[in-house]
Amino acid sequence: MTIEYNVLAPGPVNLHPRVQEALSRPMIHHRTPEFDRILAGVHKKLKTLFQTSEPVFVLSSTGSGGMEALLVNTMNQGDQILGIDSGKFGERWCEMAQVYGAQVQTMKLPWGEPVKVSAVQDHLTKNPQIKIVLCQACETSSGVIHPIEALGKMINEKFPETLFLVDGITALGAMPLPMDDWKIDGLVGGSQKAFMLPTGLSLVAFSKKAWKKVEQNNTPRFYFDLRKELKANQKGETFFSSNVTLIRALDVVLDLIFEKGLDAHFAEIHQRAEFTRQFGQKMGMSLFAKAPSDSLTALNVPAGIDSQKIRTELEKKHHITVMGGQDQARGKILRIGHMGYIQPEQMVDLMMKLGQTLHAEDPSLCPPGLMNKLETEMKKFWGLV
Ligand SMILES: Cc1ncc(COP(=O)(O)O)c(C=O)c1O
Known about the structure:
By secondary structure, this protein is an alpha/beta fold.
């Protein structure tokens, strides 16, 4: 028997019925006029979503592959790179740059804290040889958002030779991240997050400034050599075999987003985040991130509660998937995702079941009287009563 889970994790996410239908269509070959038409449409729509005049690439890889593609196409071995490390994914990107031979200077931040633009500016002023700055737009391990617009504009204005690469894997498609306007030089998104698909595609683009580096750097690359992909895309193809099934479903997702309108789509995700932040606090939890993102909310569970146990119970008993904390936040936080196909009733159900689960662990938490009152408030929030 297949259990239907309500996947409210910060990726992967619940799939829209139209996406599920697209994923189940019969196979077609990638060298066909039908697929060529789909690919051309996807490339065009992605440019609108990235808000860039430069080409956007669809790679058959997880998000980490896209992060690697941004690096290997723009860095030279031996380059000095500043990596903003505010959690698990910042740490991964720094490590990746080191593996490819960069000299990485790490700006390590306490989990949940956004980076200060002035600190980055000071660091670059003192280290003018830095060629690339790496930053997550949203660091998924803590749910924090970083000031990408201010960072991009500052780097572009004060350090015009430095590139700003952004991991938008849990941000792109969930919140505004206009690449050209915010002076982002390399941007990556991931299919299982705000692109509302299964895992398996990364989406990347470079600014005009970054393209100059792509054309001439000495880092060995093959699969992620995007010069080859650009040439193939210009002929209406992908260089390697295309991920037909996911690209066809991506086409449907992009239509769904643009039918709704980008602003309305972002507003929906924002409302889910507002809901979780408000009611999570009313249920005795606090926000882990000092600058909380709209993509996910990280809630500190009350003292004495193991968040890992709560997430397991929610999944086992109620078939609701949320995530616990990683590394230093393990057992301490719950991470609730706001991306994907989510109905207001599912958000209410999650909070009610979370209340019950906390109450079962510690009867002083989320007593039935409080939860009954909050249920009415939650329904009012969504206009369900
Ligand atoms: C911010 C961020 N960067 C990178 C990744 C890695 O993506 P993937 O697991 O698709 O390789 C994730 C995945 O959760 C992420 O949230």
